[in-house]
Amino acid sequence: PAVTPGIVAKALAVLQQFPTIRAFLFECTEMPPYSDAVRKATGIPVFDSITCCDFFISGFRDNARFGINDWQEDWDGVQDGYVYGQNLSAAQKAMLVNKVH
User: Fold this and answer.
1) pTM of the entire structure?
2) I need a labelling partner for 38 at 20 to 30 A (CA). Which of 12, 47, 49, 57 fits?
3) What is the mean pLDDT of residues 25-46?
4) Which residues contact 7 (CB under 8 A, 6 or more apart)?
5) DSSP 37
6) For position 77, what pLDDT does the model report?
7) Which of 23, 25, 31, 28 is nearest to 7 (CA)?
8) What confidence score (pLDDT) does residue 78 get?
9) pLDDT category, 47, cuts 50, 70, 90?
10) What are the E-state strand segments in the chain?
């Protein structure tokens, strides 16, 4: 929409004025169309009526990774082998506080 540049500019101005802001909450139900543009421009979370409703409804939905689905019973009882740092590149290993031996 043609309003998007103005909304993004306002969000950037507010963020410049209050640099410790960690998220935007768009309370007006007219604002969701601009949320993605503000997210992209600012790099911080934007909560609007859609994301808040999604969050609310998710509290009623079953999470397949937990709870009553008995997913734990699918485990074969054998722990996967792992060596500390095996998933890291040489550069990432160099940055570790606890070095790989």
Assistant:
1) 0.62
2) 57
3) 96
4) 31, 34, 37, 38
5) H
6) 76
7) 31
8) 83
9) very high
10) 24-25, 46-47
- Contact by Cβ (8 Å): 63, 55: no
List pLDDT tens digits, range 2-25: 999 999 999 999 999 999 999 999
For position 73, what pLDDT does the model report? Answer: 65
Supply the pLDDT for residue 74: 67
Sequence-separated (6 or more) residues with CB below 8 Å from residue 96: 85, 88
Q: What is the 3-state secondary structure (H, E, C) of 78-96?
A: CCCCCCCCCCCCHHHHHCC
The two structure tokens encoding residue 57? 């409804």
Q: 84 CB contacts (<8 Å, ≥6 apart)? A: 98, 100
Region for 67 from its dihedrals, namely left if φ exceeds 0, alpha if ψ lies in -120 to 50, beta otherwise: left
Distances, alpha carbon 91 to alpha carbons 73, 86, 95, 99, in Å: 38, 12, 7, 12
Q: Token digits for 97?
A: 């506080």
